[in-house]
Amino acid sequence: MADEDAPDGNAVTAVPVGGFARPVPARFPWAEPLFTVGVTGTNGKTSTTHLVASVVRAAGAQVLCQSTLGYFTNGEPFPIERSERGFLNALHVLAERGGRHAVVEVTSLALLNGYAKKWRFDLGVFTNLTRDHVAEHGSWEHYLAAKAQLFVHLGPGRTAVLNAGDEGALLIDQATPRDVVRRYYYAPGRGPLLHPADLAARSFEVTLEGTRIALEPSAAAEVLGGELTTQLVGEVFGENVLGAALAGLESGFDAQVVRRGLGECRGLPARFEVLHRRPTVVLDYAHTPDAIARLCATARRIAGTGRIILVFGAGGNFDVGKREPMGEAAAQGADLVFLANDNPRREDPTTIMGALERGCQRGSAEVRIIYDRADAIRCALEASREGDVVLVAGRGHDRGMVFANGVMPYSDPEVVAALCAGREHA
Fold this sequence. Notes:
Blueprint: E1 16-17, E2 20-21, E3 35-40, H1 45-58, E4 63-67, E5 70-73, E6 76-77, H2 84-96, E7 101-105, H3 108-112, H4 115-118, E8 123-126, H5 134-137, H6 140-152, E9 159-163, H7 167-175, E10 182-187, E11 199-207, E12 210-215, H8 219-223, E13 227-230, H9 235-250, H10 255-264, E14 273-276, E15 280-284, H11 289-303, E16 308-312, H12 323-333, E17 336-339, H13 349-360, E18 366-369, H14 373-383, E19 389-393, E20 400-403, E21 406-409, H15 412-424
Parallel strand pairs: 3-7, 3-8, 4-7, 8-9, 9-10, 10-11, 15-19, 16-17, 16-19, 17-18
Antiparallel strand pairs: 1-2, 4-5, 5-6, 11-12, 12-13, 14-15, 20-21
Helix pairs in contact: 1-9, 1-10, 6-7, 9-10, 11-12, 12-13, 14-15
């Protein structure tokens, strides 16, 4: 982030705020009043970011939300270029309008490039760390070190919200300035706890309308009324709600505002997005072993005695080591799996499919390989029966598929819409 990109004013030196001298100063004089929440991790960043922004909106405050879905002001899309200059201009517009809150999804590559040293973050949320993007950093340790930059540069009196069920959180805790940054932990409600939690899930109730989270007794749970709800579907989003709830409380919002904001957050594109009912067809961005496993587990709760039918693939030329684990997660979580192309790029699709299929052999699902993705979705829908859930995973709302000879127009939601319309009029 270069100073010449400043929309107005010059960079300033550290200014004590609230009795604390922050090691990262406000970038420009107009940015001094801003309170910025940064959200990082492998999975759940986008959902957590929008949940926290919804809390700010519930308080009646203006908020800029920046995520992989784009820029949003007060919940509405904000058309601006996706660049450093666009980011600064969006924040400057927020400040000029009297806004004081920004919630930003922070990627590991941005942090590697010094993002946390160039923009002041007041609160950091860590969701989890899985193997996705490890190849881009060279090792798991370098990937973790990049994520940790958000917390290393938090100033005195600031707050870190960490996942008590993730090993990476403990290492980030160690890298965060001792005794000057507050830590709060949330427990996802699955797997062993690696650290005592300030807010933990006791149980989840998942339906196609949303998720209810019953909370374990704690001081934070008591002020939140013992339970939280969200319109997002799935236990994984329940975990994101816990992190967002702590972030909301630590941002100074009343517990009732936090509850209302989390409950008002609408479903997000390709985050267990229900595209059709009868049959139930779900679009999800899951493209890691962990995300595939969670997606299938959520669908299983909704399907009851019905089957889980999954369509997915893996991208070419990147992170080949995740393919077999993805196949294993798919074949253990679903009943019928269709392997299909997903951005093969310059790699031979048969090589990608071979790795996915080897992983699938460690599960019990029936597996079919259909390279043409639209045809695979058609076959999945034709195979579905009453009560089944069809999952279309990995691509979200991308509108092009990358092959060796270029980008071909393709959209999962458009294919699903056309196929479902055809079934209804057959």
